[in-house]
Amino acid sequence: MLNVNQMIEWAAVILILIGSIVSVISAFGMIRLPDVYTRSHAATKSSTLSVLTCLLGAFIYFWVHDGYVSVRLILGIGFVFVTAPVAGHLICRAAYRSRVPLAEGSGEDELKEKLFADEK
């Protein structure tokens, strides 16, 4: 029979496993998706989720198993949570302003007529 500490340790292990699975899915997305905008989506959203779940699992494991609260892991979670989406947004913005084309079937580009209207 498992006690409470062992169940929490297993939950931490499952979080780390889920994070690594999402990371592999993110890598496949970066390879398979057609343009820089959708690749950035795969790189930022799913990779952020995978890193956060892995770090949270490690934090919970060390907290329960060793009684150690790691400030570095908390700072790592906060840093990744803030910087990765911002970096993805800035990469997409720079690609759009550099006129990197959208993939076929991406839909309508409503920003183009407002952003590049003065160049016609």
Could you please describe the fold and organization of this structure?
The chain has helices at residues 4-32, 36-65, 71-97, 112-115. The protein is mostly helical. It has one domain (4-101). The chain is elongated. The termini are far apart.
Q: How do the SSEs run, as a string of H and E?
A: HHHH
Largest sheet: none
Helix share bin: over 70%
Number of helices: 4
General form: elongated
Radius of gyration: 20 Å
Quick synopsis:
This protein is mostly helical and 120 residues long.
Write the layout of secondary structure elements.
Elements: H1 4-32, H2 36-65, H3 71-97, H4 112-115
Helix pairs in contact: 1-2, 2-3
Key terms for this structure?
120 residues; 4 helices
